[in-house]
Every structure is written in structure tokens, then in C-alpha cells.
Amino acid sequence: GAKKIGILNRSRHINSFDKDFNAYIFRVLNRVHPGFGVSRKAMSIMNLIILGVFHMIAKEAARLGNSNEGPTITVCEIQTAIRLMFPANLATNAVSEGRKAVASYESFE
């Protein structure tokens, strides 16, 4: 069925292609507040928020990518989408952390 995502104020179907971020949410919680727990319902809500933001960024990046010739969304489109969607300081930090994550990923290849 459709799930209501309050932060997005719209309904959408959560399908099997959507990632489950629960393990990552729990890791971040333990880094920030060691020893704290989170209820199953709160974890589900956090997961839905992350999925919603992910889909919003992907949709905006795809819209920006439509003007380019290839079918691939590049790092440039994702960074631009983030800069358009978030306040300046949050966007700057998000892009910076994204660059670090990509560099870390590429160093393991």
C-alpha cells in the first residue's frame, strides 16, 4: 500500500528497490549518542525520511540531467540538485561529505 511521508506531504509506494537504511541510522546514532536505543517505529520513520530525501535529490538530478545528452546522472547533477534544494551551509557540508565518500569508495577499487 501507499505510505504517508509527512515531511514530503505526499504519498508514494515503497517498493522492493528502496534500500533499508536501518543499519546505517543505528551506526550514526551509536556514534553520536553511544548506548542510546531507538524504537522500531522511530527507525521506520527515519528510514522513510531518508528515502524521501534520496528520491527528491534523484528526481531533481534527473531533471537537470535531461538537458545533457547521456542517460547517466553525473556527480555534477547530484551536487547541483543538492545546492538547489538545501540551504547554503547544509548544501556545502553535504557536497563536501559526498566528495569524501566518493574519494573513499574510489580508493578501495
From TrEMBL:
<dbReference type="GO" id="GO:0000786">
    <property type="term" value="C:nucleosome"/>
</dbReference>
<dbReference type="InterPro" id="IPR000558">
    <property type="entry name" value="Histone_H2B"/>
</dbReference>
<comment type="similarity">
    <text>Belongs to the histone H2B family.</text>
</comment>
<feature type="domain" description="Core Histone H2A/H2B/H3">
    <location>
        <begin position="13"/>
        <end position="84"/>
    </location>
</feature>
<protein>
    <submittedName>
        <fullName>Core histone H2A/H2B/H3/H4</fullName>
    </submittedName>
</protein>
<dbReference type="GO" id="GO:0030527">
    <property type="term" value="F:structural constituent of chromatin"/>
</dbReference>
<dbReference type="GO" id="GO:0046982">
    <property type="term" value="F:protein heterodimerization activity"/>
</dbReference>
<dbReference type="InterPro" id="IPR009072">
    <property type="entry name" value="Histone-fold"/>
</dbReference>
<dbReference type="Pfam" id="PF00125">
    <property type="entry name" value="Histone"/>
</dbReference>
<dbReference type="InterPro" id="IPR007125">
    <property type="entry name" value="H2A/H2B/H3"/>
</dbReference>
<dbReference type="GO" id="GO:0003677">
    <property type="term" value="F:DNA binding"/>
</dbReference>
